[in-house]
């Protein structure tokens, strides 16, 4: 499960992630980290027992949003060209045998590369 | 075995015509043989769905009161061509909206018209005795227009060159993003479903052929612009009623760092009049051959790297100089198939009859390049040939001396064999001095990522590159990476001064 973690100013300098990994014994994959002076945002991916990790963050007063479907596609606009399948670094898009462009949103790491390159402006990311 | 178009239409009326899509035809012919296939199959439907820039629509707005002779007209801020009668205009697919963004354009206006959305209309004029009104602002939908007729000067390319990129940077082209060093290949066209590839002799596709254009009935009205039959790159000029079109078969496109275009679904039914037509429509992807061209060379005549079939392109990988290169489509095969299927259904329903051309498309002729009175200068014409460069193993100290002695602040760095390996600037030297004796040699301090250009590139390409990378000069190198000269923005400004 991918989650967006928003760490408030007072916790930015604390080793929160390591602490949670040690306590929960669950591995956390950092996909994107953005640290500013007064806040930090992270996209993390947790394969097993993500509920524990979510709870651990929340207990420390950190906001967690589940990213069930990070990238969204408007199927009424998509023309199934396949440009996105060339651009995406983690193979979210795959052209199937019968030329449908299949999407597995859960793989998305929110790099946003595909957003501007989709010619029909079908792809959006809310975060 | 011969069939007339009347017999085929009769069968369509009676609901007993046999219609297949052109991707089904190869197997049918293989199984039944040509003679039986000709007897069995009456119509083969084709389809293509790609970004077709050379598209647009004639609109007639009706007269206002008092009347206006529209001299300039804007639809959602996109200018339409009005150099025709008072309230006629042509909206072109690639025209961009006023303002700095490249987000909206003619393609979107056309899609929004078909989608029955409201469009803001502004017009300006100088006023005449018969057309006194000087400016006008209103809101219209397609239903308010007298006519809205799509007329596309060039659609339905028989096939299209595939694109790759030899240069060392990403190119954002109308063929999509092309990664450096031949890392990908983009292609367009539906291969065995392509209308003209299923009738390469233009026996049934010609002036007057009824077609499927974006959900409506349309017609071929002639050969398209840049029709290039002798090289197998025929094109079509088509028309269709915008008011009857369907947004499912039309989609505005915004091609990153290129501009606006329009995806159009176009399908043509091919009557199986005789064995020759059965044979032509049995074409497979492996029979449709195109070229892979190098967009890294920013010239009109881009080098052809090899011939390639649509079968290879559609497999996802193509062998290029012994390397497996990933391919990706710009057009949609799925939608092309949907076009061919929809057309098939309409014929089976009896609501779409076939017509033969009243005049054939030209079968001879080639596309000509532009006549240019003045030849654009090339980098080799303007570059300075006296280049101070330095070997990568030289000491930083020596490099500093060379810069000072020559009164310059950067120079190319070459290997022992004389090949370009980097560039060093006075800033790089200052940095290395500041860091102490950390870097001793030029090769430790230089930047290895050098923007350069070839001698046979146009100076316009050089100017664009200097601007893109915000640099003042770059080395000119040959394919062996030997430095031939330097080109700087001051060399280029010589040109402006004449
Ligand atoms: S690039 Fe856009 S239009 Fe093309 S397949 Fe992907 S989402 Fe669909
Ligand atoms: S945002 Fe990045 S990772 Fe997500 S689908 Fe687009 S290209 Fe792939």
TrEMBL record, chain A:
Keywords: 4Fe-4S, Iron, Iron-sulfur, Metal-binding. The keyword Cytoplasm does not apply. It holds the Pfam family Fer4_7. Residues 69-98, 99-127 form the 4Fe-4S ferredoxin-type domain. The keyword Iron applies. GO terms for molecular function: 4 iron, 4 sulfur cluster binding; metal ion binding; oxidoreductase activity. PANTHER family: PHOTOSYSTEM I IRON-SULFUR CENTER, PHOTOSYSTEM I IRON-SULFUR CENTER-RELATED. This is 4Fe-4S dicluster domain-containing protein.
From TrEMBL, chain B:
The keyword DNA-binding does not apply. It comes from the Archaea. Pfam families: CBS, HcyBio. Residues 383-442, 446-498 form the CBS domain. Signal peptide: none annotated. Keywords: CBS domain. Gene3D superfamilies: CBS-domain. SUPFAM superfamilies: CBS-domain pair. The keyword ATP-binding does not apply. This is CBS domain-containing protein. It comes from Methanoliparum thermophilum.
């Amino acid at each position: 499960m991918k989650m967006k973690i928003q760490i408030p100013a007072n916790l930015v300098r604390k080793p929160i992630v390591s602490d949670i990994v040690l306590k929960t014994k669950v591995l956390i994959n950092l996909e994107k980290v953005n640290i500013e002076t007064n806040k930090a945002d992270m996209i993390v991916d947790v394969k097993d027992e993500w509920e524990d990790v979510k709870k651990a963050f929340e207990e420390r007063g950190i906001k967690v949003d589940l990213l069930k479907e990070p990238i969204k596609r408007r199927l009424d606009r998509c023309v199934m060209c396949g440009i996105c399948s060339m651009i995406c670094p983690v193979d979210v898009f795959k052209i199937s045998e019968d030329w449908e462009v299949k999407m597995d949103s859960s793989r998305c790491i929110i790099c946003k590369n595909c957003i501007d390159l989709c010619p029909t402006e079908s792809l959006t990311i809310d975060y | 075995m011969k069939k007339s178009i009347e017999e085929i239409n009769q069968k369509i009326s009676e609901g007993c015509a046999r219609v297949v899509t052109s991707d089904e035809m190869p197997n049918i012919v293989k199984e039944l043989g040509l003679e039986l296939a000709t007897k069995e199959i009456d119509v083969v439907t084709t389809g293509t769905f790609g970004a077709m820039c050379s598209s647009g629509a004639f609109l007639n707005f009706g007269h206002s009161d008092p009347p206006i002779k529209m001299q300039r007209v804007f639809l959602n801020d996109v200018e339409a061509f009005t150099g025709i009668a008072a309230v006629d205009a042509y909206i072109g697919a690639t025209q961009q909206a006023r303002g700095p963004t490249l987000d909206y354009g003619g393609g979107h206006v056309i899609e929004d018209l078909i989608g029955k959305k409201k469009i803001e209309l502004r017009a300006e004029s100088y006023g005449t005795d018969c057309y006194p009104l000087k400016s006008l602002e209103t809101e219209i939908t397609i239903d308010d227009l007298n006519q809205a007729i799509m007329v596309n000067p060039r659609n339905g390319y028989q096939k299209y060159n595939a694109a790759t990129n030899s240069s060392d940077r990403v190119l954002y082209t109308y063929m999509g993003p092309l990664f450096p060093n031949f890392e990908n290949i983009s292609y367009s066209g539906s291969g065995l479903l392509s209308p003209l590839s299923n009738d390469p002799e233009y026996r049934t596709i010609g002036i007057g052929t009824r077609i499927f254009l974006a959900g409506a009935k349309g017609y071929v009205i002639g050969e398209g612009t840049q029709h290039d039959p002798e090289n197998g790159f025929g094109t079509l000029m088509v028309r269709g009623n915008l008011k009857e079109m369907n947004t499912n078969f039309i989609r505005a496109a915004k091609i990153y760092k290129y501009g606006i275009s329009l995806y159009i679904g176009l399908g043509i039914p091919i009557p199986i009049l005789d064995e020759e037509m059965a044979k032509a429509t049995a074409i497979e992807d492996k029979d449709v051959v195109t070229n892979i061209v190098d967009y890294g060379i920013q010239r009109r005549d881009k080098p052809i790297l090899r011939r390639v079939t649509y079968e290879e392109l559609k497999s996802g990988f193509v062998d290029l100089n012994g390397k497996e290169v990933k391919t990706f489509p710009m057009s949609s095969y799925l939608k092309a198939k949907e076009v061919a299927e929809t057309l098939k259904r309409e014929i089976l329903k009896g609501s779409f009859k076939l017509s033969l051309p009243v005049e054939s498309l030209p079968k001879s002729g080639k596309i000509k390049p532009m006549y240019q009175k003045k030849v654009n200068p090339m980098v080799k014409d303007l570059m300075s040939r006296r280049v101070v460069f330095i070997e990568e193993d030289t000491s930083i100290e020596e490099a500093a001396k060379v810069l000072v002695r020559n009164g310059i602040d950067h120079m190319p760095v070459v290997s022992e064999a004389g090949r370009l390996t980097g560039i060093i600037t006075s800033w790089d030297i200052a940095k290395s001095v500041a860091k102490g004796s950390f870097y001793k040699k030029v090769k430790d301090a230089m930047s290895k990522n050098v923007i350069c250009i070839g001698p046979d590139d146009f100076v316009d390409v050089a100017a664009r590159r200097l601007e893109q990378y915000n640099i003042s000069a770059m080395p000119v190198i040959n394919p062996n990476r030997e430095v031939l000269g330097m080109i700087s923005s001051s060399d280029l400004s010589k040109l402006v001064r004449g």
